[in-house]
UniProtKB/TrEMBL annotation:
Pfam families: Polyketide_cyc2 (PF10604). This is Polyketide cyclase.
């Protein structure tokens, strides 16, 4: 009988922890790029260009990539399969607000299945510069929701976003 009480207490504790754990995540970073917004946006709307500045592309130069559709348009899909660091999945452009925002759905298949909404925003800054914000958000399902009590999605991915944006800045500013 004691075993049943212990098991019930553990189950109640897990349910309480699940209910107080963060249900959503939202991670973003931004950077100032000394290039005109139209130039920056035109470069960013093509998913194939991410291979030139993405931190994950650098972590697995032998990553297998496949593309479906017309790059730079809604419905274009970029899929990848790589090493343990990059896993496998696909990214599909879901919405383009010309000149200001590109939205996509990230579907991770490995190391675990999940779906996130990603975006890149472009806005004019002082002079002829551009502020770029790169981010993603989504729902924490089980067991990730419980894991977020001791882990932070922002800490896990934020540095990757910073690295990618720094690489993007270098790439775009050297194209002058």
């Amino acid at each position: 009988m004691t075993f049943i009480y212990i098991l019930a207490a553990i189950l109640v504790l897990l349910i309480i922890l699940y209910l107080i754990a963060p249900a959503r995540y939202d991670v973003s970073r931004n950077i100032l790029i000394n290039r005109p917004p139209a130039v920056v946006f035109e470069y960013l709307k093509y998913l194939k260009n991410q291979d030139e500045w993405s931190p994950w592309a650098k972590r697995d130069p032998d990553m297998k990539k496949e593309y479906r559709g017309t790059d730079g348009t809604v419905g274009f899909v970029s899929s990848w399969e790589g090493n343990k660091e990059v896993g496998a999945g696909e990214q599909e452009i879901t919405r383009i607000q010309e000149g200001s925002r590109i939205e996509s759905e990230l579907r991770f298949l490995k190391p675990w299945k999940s779906t996130s909404d990603a975006y890149i925003e472009v806005e004019p800054a002082a002079g002829d510069a551009t502020r770029v914000r790169w981010g993603f958000s989504g729902q924490n399902g089980f067991p990730m929701r419980l894991m977020m009590l001791v882990m932070s999605m922002d800490k896990m991915v934020g540095k990757d976003f910073e690295e990618g944006l720094a690489s993007l800045k270098t790439r775009l500013e050297s194209k002058e």
